[in-house]
């Protein structure tokens, strides 16, 4: 069951043209934790056959626990038989401890889920489909398993925003017969109305509300992939802004004994905001350019962004079409370009001039400068009424002192952790 902490700091309001949104119910400070949210559903982002113990390729073996999704020790990643705990029934799914296995057998990897996943793994037609389709099948198994083990959480998921579109309807037409053949193994309650329409509705909820839990950051890899997806009911209320005032932190690989909460999301404020201001996250790294952002938002979330930043950047080029520009332009802007514009913008503002990029200050202060990171910096939580002068990156975890941030010459702060 999801738990929302600091709920008195936020309230859900309906905003015209934006749907339900999170709004500050009192003034909020930079670094302040405004939400802790637990997932009601987690599922792997791997292909269905990636965890096969019969495979000779170590690359095909999951590097993560199939319940808490912590990274397994390197000594266990190359050989599945060395896993601390394997599912006793299918022998395909492995867990970081006997404790995780025990919890999984009573929840995410129940007897029905285990049998259903095994049937999917044996379906040659499904295994020939793209990864996206296989992951959607994983989601549907997790969703209908949730209907069995926690009907109340299943209803919460159905209450989230998202209506079927052509893509989710088409996916449901292919996947529903596969899932339907498995449901005789389950006792899905009649009130849930198991049907192609429900399957399409679930896929729509997943499309708009699933958060990716990313693989560990590596300075040598600029293409981080997703290890798992989760449905976070309270975090799902946050709308997107290309210059967010809050960002999400997760500590999935934290070395804590409480694996029940290592997949929790923590939402922290990037800077101060007044009461009544909408609190927004960015749905992807903030360094993407205008055309790339608009293309992703239209394709993945079904809306066009009209935030202040987009209104400024839309005038930088002709932008004949989102598709053409996404192909013609680089998907990201080099951090040096941001720093040059930011320094110029700060200098112009100091002299009362108008700048072509009034938001450049955000990138200079709040975007991580570590190679291939592109994360967002937010202050550590304040100690009482004393704000922190240390910023933390929500991707690589780098800490940076805010003491030496100089808006006169645009110099970054001092790195405290490499």
From TrEMBL:
PROSITE patterns: SET. This is SET domain-containing protein. SMART domains: SET. SUPFAM superfamilies: SET domain (SSF82199). Residues 8-284 form the SET domain. InterPro entries: ASHR2-like, SET_dom, SET_dom_sf.
